[in-house]
Amino acid sequence: MYFWCVVKLSIIGTGNVAFHLAKAFSQAQGVKLQFVAGRDSEKLRTFEGFTTTLDLNKELEETFYSDVILIAVSDASIAAVSQKLIESKALIVHTSGSAAIEILDQNKHCGVFYPLQSFSKEKELVYKEIPFLIEAKLQGDLMILKDLTKSLSASYFTVNSKDRAALHLAAVFSNNFTNHILTEAKQLCNDHKVSFELLKPLMLETVQKAFSIGPENSQTGPAKRKDTPTINKQLSALKSAEQKELYALLTQAIQNHYER
């Protein structure tokens, strides 16, 4: 199942991942974006500028004539959607970081096309900077996924489901949890009427050092040096019980790490 010509592609889903991939593939060389299918007619309208849209419940069979169907829905919905595609001869691919490829076992041709990046509709993406973690059970299907990443000028890494799940978990820590901590930091700045922007150079240096010398080698601060007076002072300054709990938990975790 390998194509030397234009790959006909459809996408099922209307979320951020579906939106960005649909927009990118609509402009990609060697790919013909045929349809985007979804249940929410309001969200489907956002795709009308670059492809034809379908009602997931009524017109899904139209996607059967595609070479590749990307399922970009919540993990809980992947199996149910793939069940509707059993009659299709297309390569059925999901975009989840944590769902195993086996969730698509009912489909003859199946794979995973997971972009390791955070997607927001308001932010444009630079695909050459995004690693795609791909997986397929058949070599021909894997070649198609490699070609899809190349059409986006992105890089690909062949990663099995177990390792992809581990990377997804690491991404939750590095992106989602960090983002929440930054949200709390911004709230503290707002509460005291100081500029959140002043933290930007510090954050950029933090990330740069984490990937140059390793995060474990670049840790500083009162927790690392066991500066109890400063820790207690800062705990007292926090008004929110959740912030106090988060501060205490992370402080203890840092100290535990450097006592190993």
What does the model show?
With 260 residues, the chain is α/β, with parallel strands linked by helices. It folds into two domains: 7-159, Rossmann fold; 165-257, Orthogonal Bundle (N-(1-d-carboxylethyl)-l-norvaline Dehydrogenase, domain 2). Helices cover 41% and strands 16% of the residues. The protein has eight helices and eight strands. Strands 3-2-1-4-5-6-7-8 form an eight-stranded mixed β-sheet, with helices on both faces. The longest helix is centred in the C-terminal third of the chain and has 31 residues, at 161-191. It is elongated, with a radius of gyration of 22 Å.
What's the arrangement of secondary structure elements?
Elements: E1 7-12, H1 16-25, E2 31-38, H2 41-44, E3 52-55, E4 68-71, H3 75-83, E5 91-94, E6 110-115, E7 131-136, H4 139-151, E8 155-158, H5 161-191, H6 200-212, H7 228-237, H8 241-257
Parallel strand pairs: 1-2, 1-4, 2-3, 4-5, 5-6, 7-8
Antiparallel strand pairs: 6-7
Give the structure's gist in a few sentences.
Helix content is 41%, strand content 16%. With 260 residues, the protein is an alpha/beta fold.
Keywords:
260 residues; 2 domains; 8 helices; Rossmann fold; N-(1-d-carboxylethyl)-l-norvaline Dehydrogenase, domain 2; alpha/beta
User: What's the CATH first level of the largest domain?
Assistant: Alpha Beta
State the end-to-end CA separation: 51 Å
As a percent range, the share of helical residues equals 40-55%
CATH homologous superfamily of the largest domain?
NAD(P)-binding Rossmann-like Domain
Uncertain residue segments = none
Structural class: alpha/beta
- Rg is 22 Å
